[in-house]
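Q: Joint fold for the lines below.
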Amino acid sequence: MNLDFTYHNPTIIHFGKEALSNLKAELANYGDTVMLAYGKGSIKKIGLYEQVVSILKECGKNIVEVTGIMANPTWEKVKEGAKIVKDNNVDLILAVGGGSVIDCAKAISVSAYSEEDAWTKYWLQFKPVDNKIVPVASILTLAGTGSEMNGGSVITNDDMKLKMGRVFPPNVYPKFSILNPEYTFSLPKYQMVSGIFDMMSHLMEAYFSGEDDTTSDYIVEGVLRSIIHSAKIAIKNPEDYESRSNLMWSATLAMNPLMGLSKPQDWQVHMIEHQIGAYTDCAHGMGLAAVSLPYYRFIYKNGLDKFVRFATQVWGIEEEGKTKEEIALAGIDALETFVKECGIVINLKELGATEEMLPAIAESTVILGAYKKLTSDDILEILKVAYTA
Amino acid sequence: MNLDFTYHNPTIIHFGKEALSNLKAELANYGDTVMLAYGKGSIKKIGLYEQVVSILKECGKNIVEVTGIMANPTWEKVKEGAKIVKDNNVDLILAVGGGSVIDCAKAISVSAYSEEDAWTKYWLQFKPVDNKIVPVASILTLAGTGSEMNGGSVITNDDMKLKMGRVFPPNVYPKFSILNPEYTFSLPKYQMVSGIFDMMSHLMEAYFSGEDDTTSDYIVEGVLRSIIHSAKIAIKNPEDYESRSNLMWSATLAMNPLMGLSKPQDWQVHMIEHQIGAYTDCAHGMGLAAVSLPYYRFIYKNGLDKFVRFATQVWGIEEEGKTKEEIALAGIDALETFVKECGIVINLKELGATEEMLPAIAESTVILGAYKKLTSDDILEILKVAYTA
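A: Joint structure:
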């Protein structure tokens, strides 16, 4: 079943070694006050902060800042940023960093002028955006979430122990995003491989659904194969430009609506991981990997043909002399082998979970899923496997 | 070598069985006078004309028309449309038809308010668009050119015997495009299979270049495989919604800049076909197929590894026991077999060429090309093979 869709992807992408040279021309389209949003200072280490501030000054912009944005950006941090935006009448929020920083920037954008409590309005009640929003743009330093070309904004409410994702419409997408693969060279390997699984997971969440055979399925297979190929090169040589470039662009595409057009989708892995993230603050991609392996082994019989296709088209598993079940499982095994070769952590204990947390994580997980609707007990079973992986 | 790029794809796509239901809301964003642009009446046969006019009237629009737009839209037709736009102060050009109608609508858009001769300015001198343009939107009835989500506009100047393509920037892209696969059901098989090769050719023009291994190469392989799979189903059963849907969306993607990002590209096949089209008025996709087969056999040794990859990844050719040359040629043979099974005409004589035309076509072809730069003599040799195919 090919579903109807509306697709609109207005973000302007400047990609490559000279991508930053486009910043000046882009800034001319916005007002005088720019809020820089960034994390804990890694952009200063690679010299990017200084470059960006110098361009902003050259363009005569007033600069304000929201800093210290963390891996799982909190609602507290969003409120801090929203206040700065309102107090300074900010014209553009320029997020410099990874997906967390961009997610936080979008959240600040929609929250600053909301008259209702924006957490409740946007992340709990999923209401439409009807208040003034502030344009967001990004300079990306980490490949993984795809936030640089979509409307996603995942925010953690520490008080409520809830990590909630909201996909905002195209008017909240970054107006422009600057992607230079070289910015990712100095990223610690732990974060790099976490990002690699993150992008793969986005593709698999779109892929494992329906008994469909849409153009999107073929594209997802292509991007997955590109990621697998480039990941192996980039892990050995983090300064290999071609592979880092392919990974960066694959990540942007992986979490774009483009990958799932016409398809129903899964997203159960993300729902489970969000709650693991709310309890442990683990690296997002690691949590996704930990959940994906036992989850796919739990559901594969319900989507057998698609898991067979995954095995043969993505991993090159030979079909001869095997049952469908064996082929499907060989595909998931190949995924596990790849994950381990990358150095991705898939043990929930190692990711900071305790045995006591597991029932609470299972209970609080939102149920989505395509091939099989899980119960809280099913999720607990999956978490237990991941806990001792 | 991964090249730097800027990517911006602002067109809003409404896709599916109910896509037309979005027209009313979209029209609210534009002024009162709408120019309908269409071809020779096939939109009346399928009842689409009546539906669209009824929605336009419901929205209180004044309707003017430019009709009779032909398969290779002429500069004369563009001038006719431009005059209507200027005389009526048109606010939106709504193209209803295939790629030719949309190409013509974009040409009218940029030409109406040009003070210089627009043919010379835009199609011969490739100058930037600096005059007022009129927004274009489209309702697509034929899958093939991708004009519904790009800036392409191919126009034929009959006096000069020149068919020239221009890729306009994102502000000339259709603002919105409505794609309902059901509109393609009644298309004659000849045009349908011509469109199928057209979309494949767009992908191959992006693919056969560089010794690269970019994410775009993997995506192209995926879309090609999707097209091959769906074409076989759709040719047998033209009213199979899933396959017509996949073909329609594949066509839109195939001619979008997305498919070639980070890559050098070829486009020599299109350059040769444009001149065949200028002399014979043949169906574009047929002309492309006629040229592609001898062209790829002429150049494959210069891009051997990529042709090997094409054979194995797109056509599933087994490598065992074969030389690289044999694998590469088997891939091109598989393409030829597919083309013939589809009923695509690859004989230039049958497409309306005469032996006398061939030298003139060869002489007037623009030289592009990636793996090998052709001479006019090379092109003549290729044309002679196609003439007796």
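Q: Anything notable?
A: Strands of chain A lie at 5-15, 33-37, 62-66, 92-97, 136-140, 152-157, 162-167, 176-179. Residues 304 and 328 of chain A are 7 Å apart (CA to CA).
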